[in-house]
Amino acid sequence: MQYTSGKLGKVFVLKFENEDDLLVELDKFARKEKLKAAVFYFLGALKEGSVVTGPKKPVIPPEPNWVTFKNGWEVMGIGSIFTNKTGPQIHVHTSMGKKNKVITGCVRKKSKVFLVIEAFVFELKGIKANKEIDPKTGLNLLKIYKS
Questions:
Q1: Mean of the pLDDT values across residues 10-32?
Q2: Cα 132 to Cα 53, 82, 104, 140, 142, distances in angstroms
Q3: What is the pTM of this model?
């Protein structure tokens, strides 16, 4: 295990509206506010999008198991924002439900909002970490630097 420590910075409340793309808007927000490290929580509904629900097989490098959804799902989730040379790297996990079905996974690609999503973003200050492509897995993973 590795770790670093820091302090809370600014706290933000965001409202995503119908048809917004959650991932696109989070990226714009993180760039505008120059966030280097943050954690966020959200709740609301997504109209359509794609999630990765684990690997097809537990091997490295993993092949993602893609699931697409449409027609509006209730969602709640958590995510992180860490930057690298290319900008904010957003990692979002959500659990969503519709009628008696549930999907839990990593939101990727398109993520269109249905009606509203409320999010609460907590900036992390003094954290010595970023996201980098891990050569072993091919994934964009958290890299923690010694304090």
A1: 98
A2: 22, 10, 24, 5, 7
A3: 0.91
Nearest residue to 88 (alpha-carbon basis) of 19, 147, 40: 40
Domains of the chain: 11-144 (3.30.1330.80)
Q: Are 109 and 102 in contact (CB under 8 A)?
A: no
Q: Residue 147: is its pLDDT beyond 70? A: no
Residue range 74-78: mean pLDDT, rounded:
98
User: What are the φ/ψ torsions at residue 5 (nearest 5 degrees)?
Assistant: -130, 160
Residue 128: how many other CB atoms lie within 10 Å = 14
Is 103 within 8 Å of 69 (Cβ atoms)? yes
